[in-house]
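Field log, afternoon session.

UNIT: design team B
ACTIVITY: writing a sequence onto a fixed backbone
BACKBONE:
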């Protein structure tokens, strides 16, 4: 790949376990504090690999893949099964397949607590966040913690001093482990295309919604074309010949599956007319490129989506580096705009502009936005090798540096 350091090109034979996932430490801590932890993430993001790393810490742990009929049959009488395995960590993969389990888990957790088991009872893996979060919060309030596992982030697979060009492969291929580790770009694209087809034809129907596969694929592809644009449900509905309400429901589903992100507009009071519609991003840049048939760096750079794809890639790096910060974007009807606003628990507010250029600049609207939101830090993220300052306190850096800096605010 042009401009990419050969030392970092993934190849056949790489093992996902060679990468230390940033979520591993958090998962271990949460399991030590709570009776149950639900690990959320899209399919193929590495949840099972992470769970088996925890299984090594608890050698007598049980693992059940609830996609398998044999595993589901073992839980025909779930209460009896769990009672037969006290003092063991039970790992349930694709737990959204059996939503009725949550009411049983509540009683089992409370019984185990009375018997002295305060933590490390259940690790639940799921790929549908909305349904699981609702079920777990309703049935296991105070007993369960939630943690999201994303596809690979730059901080997990690249050394701290990596150059800007070293991120190109991750940007083009996306962070799903088997896409990132493919032998070449063609095999990576083939994997992502198969991933998309499997979601549309198998995974989504298995969750219950009866959605025409062709319609959902067209919507997903339209979102990739419109990466980072304001959500206009009526426009999408007209193109798909369905209602705006149906479009909203389909986008809700893709967000629930952690494949699409709605980035909300900043809603503070500044006495100006603010844009209220959210922006919509396909969360993994590799899926953006697969939906548009873009195989390599050259094809991405020559496509009109390149700038928006890079913006979405950087936004995911930064939001995932600061999971407890409140993310939004800022835009007024008069043109004051900033790509990302991060409001931290410490009270700090950072404004972040994202550019694909190696000689980036910002507009007057950026300065206006920074003033309006009361920014304590102004950052410009671009594909540069070394950070440098600009006038008025703007700090320029690449996504890897920015993500590390953002993570330090937690």
């Amino acid at each position: 790949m042009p401009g990419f350091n050969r030392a970092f090109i993934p190849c056949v034979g790489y093992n996902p376990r060679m990468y230390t996932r940033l979520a591993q430490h958090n998962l271990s801590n949460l399991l030590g504090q709570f009776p149950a932890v639900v690990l959320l993430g899209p399919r193929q993001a590495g949840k099972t690999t992470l769970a088996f790393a925890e299984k090594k810490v608890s050698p007598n742990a049980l693992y059940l893949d609830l996609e398998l009929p044999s595993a589901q049959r073992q839980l025909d009488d779930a209460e009896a099964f769990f009672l037969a395995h006290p003092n063991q960590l039970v790992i349930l993969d694709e737990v959204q397949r059996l939503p009725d389990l949550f009411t049983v888990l509540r009683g089992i957790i409370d019984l185990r607590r009375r018997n002295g088991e305060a933590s490390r009872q259940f690790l639940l893996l799921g790929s549908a966040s909305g349904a699981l979060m609702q079920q777990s919060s309703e049935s296991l309030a105070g007993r369960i913690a939630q943690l999201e596992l994303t596809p690979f982030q730059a901080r997990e697979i690249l050394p701290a001093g990596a150059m800007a060009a070293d991120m190109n492969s991750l940007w083009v291929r996306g962070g799903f482990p088997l896409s990132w580790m493919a032998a070449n770009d063609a095999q990576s694209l083939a994997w992502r295309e198969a991933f998309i087809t499997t979601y549309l034809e198998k995974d989504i129907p298995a969750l219950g919604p009866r959605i025409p596969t062709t319609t959902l694929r067209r919507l997903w592809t339209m979102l990739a074309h419109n990466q980072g644009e304001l959500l206009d449900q009526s426009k999408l509905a007209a193109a798909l010949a369905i209602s705006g309400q149906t479009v909203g429901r389909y986008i809700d589903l893709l967000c629930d599956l952690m494949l699409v992100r709605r980035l909300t507009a900043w809603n503070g009071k500044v006495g100006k007319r603010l844009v209220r519609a959210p922006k919509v991003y396909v969360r993994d840049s590799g899926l953006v490129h697969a939906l548009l048939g873009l195989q390599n760096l050259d094809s991405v750079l020559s496509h009109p989506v390149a700038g928006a794809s890079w913006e979405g890639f950087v936004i995911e790096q930064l939001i995932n580096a600061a999971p407890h910060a409140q993310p939004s974007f800022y835009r007024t009807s008069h043109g004051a705009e900033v790509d990302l606003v991060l409001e931290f628990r410490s009270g700090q507010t950072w404004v972040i502009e994202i550019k694909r250029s190696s000689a980036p600049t910002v507009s007057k609207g950026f300065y206006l936005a920074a003033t309006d939101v009361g920014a304590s830090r102004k950052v410009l993220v671009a594909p540069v090798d070394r950070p440098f300052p600009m006038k008025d306190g703007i700090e320029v850096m690449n996504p890897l540096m920015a993500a590390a800096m953002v993570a330090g605010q937690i």
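LOG NOTE: The chain has two domains: 20-148, 154-407.
NEXT ACTIVITY: expression trials, pending approval
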